[in-house]
Amino acid sequence: MEFNIKSGHPEKQRTACVVVGVYEPRRLSEVARQIDEVSHGYLSSILRRGDLEGKIGQTLLLHNVPGTLADRILLVGGGRERELGDYQYRKVIAQAIRTLHDTGSMEAVCYLTELNVRGRDTAWRIRQAIETAQATLYNFDQLKSKKDVCRRPLRKIVFSVATRRDLTIAEQASREAQAIALAVKLTKDLANLPSNICTPSYLAEQAKALCNLHEKLTCKVLNESHLEKQGFNAMLAVAKGSEQPPRLIVLEYRAGKKNDNPIVLIGKGVTFDSGGISLKPAKDMDEMKYDMCGAASVLGALSAAVELQLPLNLVAIIPAVENLPSGKATKPGDIVTSLSGQTVEILNTDAEGRLILADALTYAERYKPAVVIDIATLTGACVIALGKPAHGLMCNHNPLTNELLNAGRFSGDRAWELPLWDDYQDQLDSRFADMANISNNREAGAILGACFLSRFAKKFHWAHLDIAGTAWITGKEKGATGRPVPLLTQFLIDRSRDDTMIAPLSPTTAISSPLPFDPSEDKRADEENKELPSAELPSAEGEK
Ligand code: BES
Ligand code: MN
Ligand code: ZN
């Protein structure tokens, strides 16, 4: 879909459809009033007859409205003006887009971006409109043999801003929105694939393909023997029961200053979570193909950063495994030594996400990260606590908590903080190892998951996003949401802005050197550098 920004009179638009808002009860928006004037009261006479009340999501399609140049005018209900908030605005936009798509308008000029949304400016309204439009038309039909074809699909939409002065800001917003929308689509597509296609090696291939598209991206993949040699035993314990070999996928994007410590994003990549020997019940188990949504969202956020050419150093780490039962699988009570050296008693093989993330967090240390954020469909308990609207956020550094909460508020992809107090930690005590991977009761499950991870995140500022409730929707409309790509991308945009404000990037700072990381400090890293071409080489190959 093509998006454009424009400022101009609604009656002068020569297009298939002009979209304007009507507030409840039967109150024309400012733009609708302009059309009403040139048409000598055509719209108000229709409203008086009772054809449209203006409730959220109501629509009325009019043809050949006097005094206008468009084929059609689409009136869309915006609800009560004073009650128009973020949630209502997105609903209004989605309804408009759906109607346009279904009624044969292949292009349209939409004035809904001029509605008064409580506390939101032009840039925000453009951002949300484009992201919502793209999300509304998303359809995953790769695996249907017969696709639903729309005879006259919506191809191009122009969003309006009130004055020419708004154009520059709106165009920047439009660029950001399109990068995010594309990244959300990439994330949804990967997540919606079934686990017989989307395996750990498939994820690795996709990561490599992404790298091949962009010069500033490099990718390396550690395979099973690398992982064994280096001691990723917590991760390997999860992969053991499956015929699918594990992969540790590492992508690096270097567009920041040479010595800037990178932001590290870690995404849980369990391509299918059966629970292992602690087998899950059959009902809805198909949805555990979504247990790699953290990984998919990290790839999405990275691709948005690249698309927007954000001046940042960024590392994405994806531990990818399949969790299945078999004769070789890890059993409850088994004890492993994680990459950090800490031992873990695996009391429940279904608490596998924290095991693979533990080793990925330890691996992140070698990058001397500015911050590490892990994204994971970690606990059913988080879904119980917060439901679908909010990601669970647990963090060991207050300023980082605030940055992420704010990025969520602005992008409409919100998180909510849960406590990560020491008071919870002793529930992970183990009789036989340094810690257990679960507690012995069902209290505070989301927090306990984070407490476990925090033991591997002592050396840096770290945040954990539990996206178990937000990454996909269940039921008839089942599908990935692409969250938290908007939150993560906003966080990266905000970070890159701060940076440019302090010291503007000069063109000569184009980076081709490795990220800050001192091999002398880490023996494992040193070994790895011998085997695997290091970060400075393009597309380091770890397998084949
Ligand atoms: N991937 C699941 C979490 C999950 C469950 C996400 C349902 C979304 C919907 C995770 O690996 C898991 O199984 N967690 C267990 C942890 C428990 C054994 C401590 C859970 O939440 O039941
Ligand atoms: Mn599990
Ligand atoms: Zn899982």
How would you characterize the overall build of this protein?
The chain has 544 residues and is an alpha/beta fold. Helices cover 34% and strands 19% of the residues. The chain has 15 helices and 21 strands. Strands 8, 9, 10, 11, 12, 15, 16, 17 and 19 form a 9-stranded mixed beta sheet that branches. Strands 1, 2, 3, 4, 5, 6 and 7 form a 7-stranded mixed beta sheet that branches. A hairpin with a 5-residue loop joins strand 13 and strand 14. Helix 5 packs antiparallel against helix 9 and helix 9 runs parallel beside helix 14. The two termini are 38 Å apart. Manganese (II) ion binds next to loops.
List the helices and strands and how they pair.
Elements (H helix, E strand, L loop, with lengths): L1 E5 L10 E7 L3 E2 L1 H9 L3 H7 L10 E5 L8 E6 L8 H17 L4 E4 L11 H15 L19 E5 L6 H26 L7 H14 L3 E6 L1 H7 L2 H7 L7 E8 L8 E5 L1 E5 L19 H15 L5 E11 L10 E4 L5 E4 L6 H12 L6 E6 L3 H7 L4 E5 L2 H14 L3 E3 L17 E2 L8 H10 L7 E5 L5 E2 L5 E2 L4 H18 L20 H9 L13
Helix pairs in contact: 3-4, 4-5, 5-9, 8-10, 9-14, 10-13, 12-14
Zinc ion binds next to strand 11.
